[in-house]
Fold:
Amino acid sequence: MENNSFTFEKVMMIDDTEMHRYVASYFIKKHNFSREILEFGMATEALKFFEENQHNPDALPQVILLDIRMPEMDGFQFLEHLKLLPSIAKELICIVLLSSTLDPQDQARAEQNEIVKAFMGKPLDEAKLQEIHRLYKETFPVTVFV
Structure:
């Protein structure tokens, strides 16, 4: 993954912990995983972004890295709200729950959610980026990014 091209145009990170966003951002940049990183500390802020850009597919990320446990709106609540938006806001995005929770109920809930592609433990690292890329290619095989 380490060359001059980017794997994705935009990746969105939704996590209330600044340190987790920093670590994820570091690996994303180091491995040219995304040209642009959209960072949100609150799921409500990210949802507002989707509401404002739901008819502008170029503004939307190809990948969302979503924390589960957050104040105001948790990751699962965010997903329920996202499902209510037009299909472009969810059918072209690879959503990965990136969490430090060890709760098996959270993992089961993630696996049952049709728009979640994977559940991964924190922190993000190169191997997880490679797995996300593989999942994306598997889910959206005709999408090409330069």
